[in-house]
Design brief:
It is a single chain. By secondary structure, this protein is mainly α. Helices cover about 75% and strands about 5% of the residues. The chain is built from 19 helices and 8 strands. Strands 1-7-8-2 form a 4-stranded mixed β-sheet, with helices on both faces. It has a two-stranded antiparallel sheet with strand order 3-4. A two-stranded antiparallel sheet has the order 5-6.
Length: about 750
């Protein structure tokens, strides 16, 4: 019976068994429960049994694999031995062919000649060893003398160091007190000089502070008077015409404004109203913070007075921060860039630095507008000249510039300066001027710049604001200057006291130095003795040094000689070793030629034995491979059996659950549907075929196993029992599925 027919027969038996089990389902429920429990126990035992078979088959397979690996290693080793024995045999054959009487005689003669060479080389080595021994003795003696000279040199050096230390101590004793006194005197004189310089500096500070007080007093006396009297008043007609023009800059409105304003003639009239006061003729620095404060407050008050006449309630402010920003801007974008806004004639200037204004506005993150005026420059025959920088000049420049801004500038500017003064919340059409602070600065050409900033919390340009009450501001300036003067006077007093103390210290130090000059006779004698001792130690050291250098030269020469003779000995030893090696080689050649027959016979025997060992190892490998193939096939069958046993156990469990959950009516229905199991059983053939094809590799392994009657019968019996259980369980499961899906 072949394998295919056996599988079909087993499937038919399974269907019959399933039909019988379904028929028994019509019996009592207790009997059914007993049957399923027995079936479960049987299937579980089958799973355990087949798993044990798998484990045994796996162990057998592993053992067989190890045997194959060992056999393969033995074959490799035996093959290598055959190769080696073959090479030895070839060499022995060649040696046999060369073992003629002539060759043996020639080789023997060569051995004799080489023995003479070896004896000569050995004699040379012995003689050179004697030379080395003598040179080593000379070197040892030179080494001992050099060591002794080195010790003597070290002792002499220590004596020099000791004498030097003694001399230093004696000199220190001689000069210590005098040096200390001299240092004290030098320090006292230096302190007195510093104190004197400090007094001079303090006096200069007092003088400067007094000048600052005088300047501040002049400002206090003059600025308030100027501020109260120097105001610019506009007529009602001018204000009306300016408002009409700014609201509608038509040609008619401009003509009316020009007529009312009277142009340049009225500017001169306003400038003549500036009150000149002799107290203002003090020279000041335009960039000085106090002067900046006075100028910006003065300018803002003039502008706010005009804005008030115009009917505006918002006022401009002045602050230290705005002034600092103005000075920084003018220096960076006018002075540093040599930007002359008006030029030398008033018509050749560069105008406003618009790029600089844009950049600085971005830097401060605010809006900026700029007005500019002639400032400190007066126009004489069309050329600008720098006027004397007095407080009078600065105030007049501001007054004159603001007065001029009220009228037509001419050219492309038209009335833009007036517009910048009288606009509210915007300047020259630019929004963002709701909190205007004014900063005033003069460039290096003498022109005045009026920077209008919109102050915010972010840019802080309104911080450190000035009081617009000029009298209060001027008084504060004076108070600060007076406080500075008082501080300078107090400092000068302290410096004067310090100078008196320093001068007294100089006198004391001079007295101490004079007293010590007559008390150093014994110290001088000690210094003389120490110097004599040091000179003697130095002489001894030079003698020891010369001896040491001589002995070191002799040692170096002995070392060189010893190295040379040792090199000669090593060369002689190398020659002897080469001669001995050559002699041994020649002696081996004679021995090989003399014993050629014995060597050939031994090589032949070794080769034959290696071939025999390779044959045995190859046979063992083939046998081990056969055993491995059988073990692999048995393992495949055992693994397939355990998978089938697990499937049967799973189906038996499902049958048990199905039968235990059924009532009497279900079992009656099961009996009525028994005939359907025959049809379901026909599907078992395909299921078994699928299970057998699950491992094609193992199927291939089975194909190369020796097929014995006992193996077939055992496999057939196992398949018969397994498929019977599989058919039974599959039929019941199919029945249950039909019932559940109704």
């Amino acid at each position: 019976m072949n394998k295919k027919k056996m599988i079909r027969l087993t499937a038919l038996v399974g269907v019959a068994t399933a039909t019988g089990v379904v028929a028994e389902a019509n019996q009592a429920h207790a009997a059914t429960t007993t049957t399923t429990e027995t079936t479960n126990q049987t299937t579980n035992a089958s799973v355990e049994s087949t798993q044990a078979a798998v484990d045994a088959a796996q162990n057998a397979f592993d053992t067989a694999q190890t045997s194959v690996d060992n056999a393969q290693a033995n074959v490799t080793s035996a093959s290598n031995n055959v190769t080696s024995a073959s090479a030895t045999l070839s060499s022995a054959i060649a040696n046999k062919e060369a073992a003629t009487s002539e060759n043996i005689a020639s080789a023997t003669s060569a051995v004799s000649s080489q023995a003479v060479v070896v004896a000569s080389a050995s004699q040379a080595v012995s003689e050179q060893a004697g030379v080395v021994s003598a040179a080593a003795s000379v070197q040892a003696s030179a080494q001992a003398e050099a060591t002794s000279a080195s010790a003597s040199l070290s002792s002499s050096s220590a004596n020099v160091a000791s004498a030097t230390s003694a001399l230093s101590a004696a000199e220190a004793a001689l000069t210590s007190d005098q040096s200390t006194a001299a240092n004290n005197l030098s320090a006292a004189e230096s302190a007195a000089s510093s104190a004197s310089a400090a007094v001079s500096s303090g006096q200069a500070a007092v003088d400067n502070a007094q000048a600052a007080v005088a300047s501040a007093q002049a400002i206090v006396d003059a600025v308030a008077e100027v501020q109260s009297s120097d105001v610019i008043n506009m007529s009602v007609a001018y204000i009306t015409a300016l408002k009409n023009y700014l609201a509608n800059p038509s040609s008619a409105n401009e003509a009316t404004l020009q007529e009312v304003a009277k142009g340049a003639d009225y500017v001169k009239e306003l400038q003549q109203k500036f009150k000149s006061d002799a107290s203002l003729d003090v020279v000041v620095d335009p960039s000085d913070p106090t002067v900046q404060e006075a100028l910006s407050v003065y300018a803002v008050n003039l502008i706010n007075h005009l804005r008030n006449q115009y009917g505006l309630t918002t006022a401009f402010g002045a602050s230290a921060n705005a002034n600092v920003a103005a000075i920084d801007f003018v220096k960076k974008y006018y002075d540093d860039e040599d930007w002359n806004i008006f030029g030398t004639t008033g018509s050749d200037g560069k105008g406003h630095n618009k790029n600089g204004l844009d950049a600085y506005a971005d830097q401060l993150n605010t809006s900026i507008a700029e007005d500019a005026g002639s400032g400190l420059t007066t126009w004489v025959n069309g050329k600008a000249t720098m006027a004397t920088t007095t407080l009078h000049n600065l105030l007049y420049a501001v007054y004159s510039d603001i007065a001029t801004m009220l009228f037509d500038d001419g050219g492309t500017n038209n009335w833009s300066h007036a517009q910048s003064i009288f606009e509210d919340g915007t300047i020259l059409g630019t929004d963002g001027f709701n909190n205007v602070y004014l900063g005033v600065a003069f460039d290096k050409y003498g022109y005045a710049h009026y920077e209008l900033y919109n102050a915010t919390e972010g840019n802080q340009l309104g911080n450190n604001a000035y009081s617009l009450d000029v009298q209060t501001a001027a008084q504060t300036l004076l108070t600060n200057a007076q406080a500075t003067l008082a501080s300078a006077k107090a400092s000068l007093q302290r410096m004067t006291t310090n100078l008196m103390v320093a001068k007294a210290a100089v006198v004391a130090a001079q007295d101490q130095l004079a007293a010590l000059e007559n008390s150093s006779a014994s110290d001088s004698a000690a210094v003389t003795a120490a110097r004599t001792q040091l000179e003697s130690a130095k002489t001894s050291y030079q003698t020891a040094l010369a001896t040491y250098q001589q002995k070191e030269a002799a040692l170096e020469k002995a070392n060189d000689e010893l190295a040379n003779v040792q090199a000669s000995l090593e060369a002689a030893q190398a020659t002897l070793a080469t001669a001995k090696a050559k002699l041994a080689e020649l002696e081996e050649t004679v021995a090989n030629l003399t014993n050629a027959d014995q060597l050939l016979a031994a090589a032949q025997a070794a080769y034959e034995q290696a071939v025999a060992n390779l044959t045995v190892a190859t046979g063992n490998l083939e046998a081990a491979q056969v055993d491995l193939a059988k073990a692999e096939a048995q393992l495949a069958l055992a693994e397939e059996a355990v998978e089938q046993a697990k499937a049967r156990a799973e189906i038996a469990t499902q049958v048990d659950q199905q039968l235990n959950g059924s009532n009497a009516n279900d079992r009656q229905s099961a009996g009525q549907d028994a005939t359907s199991l025959k049809t379901n059983g026909r599907a078992l053939t395909a299921m078994v075929a699928t299970a057998s094809a699950a491992n094609p590799k193992r199927g291939a392994d089975q194909g190369r196993l020796p097929q014995t009657g006992a193996d077939n019968q055992e496999a057939s019996a196992m398949a018969l029992v397994g498929l019977g259980m599989l058919g039974m369980a599959t039929g019941l499961y199919g029945y249950k599925k039909k019932k559940l899906t109704k």
